[in-house]
Design brief:
130 residues, alpha+beta, four-stranded antiparallel beta sheet, rod-shaped
C-alpha cells in the first residue's frame, strides 16, 4: 500500500502530460471543373404517315391549309390552333424549334365532336377537302 500512493501520483502526472492527437482539417478536394451543358443535336421529328403536310409548318402555312382557326391560343412557350369541321376537331400545337426561332407544328391531335379519338391523318384530309 505504501507504494500504491506514489505510483498513483506518478500515473496521474503522466496522464496530464499526454495530449490528444492534433485535430487536422480534412484535406480539401479541389473544386470540380465547371461543366457546361452538352450541346445535343436537335431530335429528329418522327412524322406519322399522313401528317407530313402539317408537321414542321408555321402558322401561316397551316391557315392556308385549313382556313381561319376557331381557336388561336397563345401559351407561354407555344401556340395552339383549333380547326373544326363536321367530321372532326383538329388541334395543332406549334412550338419554336429553338430559343428565338419561329413556331412550327410539332404535334397534332384529332377527335370527334363527342370527344372520341379520331385518326389524325383522316381528320387532316377531311378538313382540307372542305
Amino acid at each position: 500500500m505504501k507504494h500504491a500512493l506514489p505510483l498513483t501520483a506518478i500515473a496521474l502526472l503522466l496522464a496530464g502530460c499526454v495530449s490528444a492527437p492534433e485535430a487536422r482539417a480534412p484535406a480539401r478536394q479541389p473544386a470540380p471543373a465547371e461543366r457546361t451543358a452538352a450541346s445535343f443535336p436537335p431530335r429528329p421529328v418522327i412524322v406519322a404517315r399522313g401528317l407530313e403536310g402539317v408537321i414542321g409548318k408555321d402558322a401561316n402555312a397551316i391557315k392556308r391549309l385549313f382556313g381561319e382557326p376557331r381557336l388561336d391560343v397563345v401559351e407561354v412557350n407555344g401556340r395552339k390552333l383549333q380547326f373544326v369541321g363536321k367530321p372532326c376537331i383538329l388541334d395543332v400545337f406549334l412550338y419554336p424549334e429553338r430559343k428565338g426561332a419561329r413556331e412550327v407544328v410539332t404535334y397534332v391531335d384529332a377527335r370527334r365532336s363527342d370527344g372520341a379519338a379520331e385518326d389524325r391523318a383522316a381528320c387532316i384530309e377531311a378538313l382540307q377537302r372542305r
